[in-house]
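Title: Comparing notes on inverse folding

I've been comparing how different people in this forum approach sequence design from structure. To keep things fair, I'm posting one structure and asking everyone to reply with a full sequence. Here's the target:
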């Protein structure tokens, strides 16, 4: 190596290439298998229910045949690994139902599977057909779980203290970073090549998060992670084919990434890379923006209390709803004015709270669609206007505290007769690692999602494959292949 790469680049490569995860740490592997199954369930849910998303899938030129290509779960499609990363990333992420993690930055660690699985599946098929001699790690379930834990960890550690959003950069930059690192390893690239590829990540243009916020929230927020996964695979393949990297991509003056963003101090990491993130993700029990889930739980409970009091007309009987929440929720999903599309609705805390209060149960993906009765309900629109959202310093502190990592919201309903339904505070919603109801809820979600396309026997085959460390990834992916499903909506 002629010039040394910037230290954060070296650290990531050392972790991915030379840090051994403890094979006996069953807690980590159990979480990794759960995360994998949850993400695959989300992909199947999207494939089975979202006609809007299915339009984004498949080869650029219809009918293209890719020998040994990645077989896109929940479909009959077979595509190259770059488009495959986009397609799987989109399927996992589109309905905002996949796992999430908050910090100074936030995001969805399972987005990385969008890159990991297509690359492993394609490599596995190419090796089997003899088209390629693979000299990376074995293309098995065990390797997949290692790649998953490491990608989660890179993304998670970076998220904790580095607010990319403060520079307008979308959090999928971390999907690009983490996916790139593990994909290089999976491809059997050298350390030096992996560093070169990561330097390309920092030199890359990064999407501006405007598509997730305010009146500009559009479906791109559902494909941005797929785009990042795609780019990770593409950059790795470019470097594998001989492209060099730029060792000072972060620190160079005046054009390095830090000079334009975080400054000389660079990135802050809360702890050395290990296997913390995979054990601390928030599994989404409902397709709701992560920071709004506690508020939805509180709304369901308050709605129940409201009805138990014999009240039935929210517009006549509710004067105001006060909602305290984290600064992140306030920044991301506090929204007034017209809502233009499904993405816009699932990123509006007032919409999901009013919906849950009126409906008495959690939002479902169909409740966000333009044609949903809720999207057109005057009652919901009027109740939404009565919800006053405030950023709460203590909830924000606890959200950023790595020993607490709560994701809280408190809701008080002020009634027209001057009385109130006292605050309900939810700090650890179902899906949070600390909530005892989480394992059962994640399991139920998986069976529900998979049941949209697969029989009980097929589902138990998938569960068996995940338990076996030697399962070949192409055999695993074959278990998810389906002809086009009849779209539900
Ligand atoms: C991480 C978030 C989520 O839980 O859904 C987020 O809403 C964050 C954001 O918009 O920045 C997301 O859509 O990725």
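Reply #1:
Here's my take.
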């Amino acid at each position: 190596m002629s010039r040394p790469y910037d230290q954060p680049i070296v650290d990531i490569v050392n972790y991915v290439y030379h840090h051994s995860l403890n094979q006996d740490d069953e807690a980590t592997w159990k979480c990794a298998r759960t995360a994998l199954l949850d993400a695959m369930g989300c992909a199947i849910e999207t494939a089975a229910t979202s006609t809007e998303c299915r339009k984004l899938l498949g080869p650029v030129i219809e009918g293209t045949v890719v020998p040994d290509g990645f077989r896109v779960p929940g479909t009959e499609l077979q595509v190259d690994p770059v488009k495959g990363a986009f397609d799987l990333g989109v399927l996992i992420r589109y309905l905002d139902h996949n796992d999430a993690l908050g910090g100074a930055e936030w995001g969805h660690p399972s987005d990385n599977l969008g890159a990991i699985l297509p690359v492993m599946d394609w490599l596995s098929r190419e090796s089997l057909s003899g088209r390629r001699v693979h000299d990376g790690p074995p293309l098995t379930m065990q390797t997949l779980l290692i790649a998953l834990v490491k990608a989660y960890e890179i993304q998670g550690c970076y998220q904790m203290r580095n607010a990319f959003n403060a520079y307008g950069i979308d959090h999928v930059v971390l999907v690009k970073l983490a996916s790139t690192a593990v994909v290089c390893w999976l491809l059997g690239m050298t350390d030096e090549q992996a560093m070169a590829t990561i330097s390309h990540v920092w030199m890359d243009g990064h999407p501006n998060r405007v598509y997730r916020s305010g009146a500009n929230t559009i479906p791109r927020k559902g494909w941005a992670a797929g785009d990042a996964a795609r780019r990770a695979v593409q950059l790795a393949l470019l470097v594998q084919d001989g492209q060099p990297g730029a060792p000072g991509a972060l620190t160079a003056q005046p054009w390095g990434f830090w000079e334009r963003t975080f400054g000389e101090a660079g990135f802050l990491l809360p702890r050395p890379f290990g296997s913390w993130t995979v054990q601390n993700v928030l599994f989404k029990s409902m397709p709701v923006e992560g920071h709004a889930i506690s508020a939805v739980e509180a709304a369901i409970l308050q709605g129940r209390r409201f009805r138990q009091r014999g009240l039935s007309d929210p517009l006549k009987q509710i004067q105001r709803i006060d909602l305290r929440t984290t600064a992140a929720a306030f920044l991301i999903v506090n929204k007034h004015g017209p809502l233009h599309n499904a993405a816009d609705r699932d990123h509006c805390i007032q919409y999901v709270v009013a919906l849950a209060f009126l409906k008495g149960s959690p939002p479902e993906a169909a409740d966000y669609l333009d044609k949903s009765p809720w999207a057109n309900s005057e009652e919901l629109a009027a109740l939404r206007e009565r919800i006053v959202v405030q950023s709460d310093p203590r909830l924000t502190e606890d959200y950023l505290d790595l020993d607490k990592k709560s994701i809280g919201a408190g809701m008080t309903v002020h009634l027209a007769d001057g009385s109130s339904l006292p605050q309900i505070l939810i700090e650890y919603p179902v899906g949070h690692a600390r909530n005892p109801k989480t394992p059962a809820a994640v399991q139920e979600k998986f069976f529900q999602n998979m049941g949209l396309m697969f029989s009980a026997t097929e589902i138990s085959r998938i569960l068996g494959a995940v338990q076996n460390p030697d399962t070949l990834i192409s055999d695993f992916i074959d278990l998810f292949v389906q002809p086009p499903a009849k779209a539900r909506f």
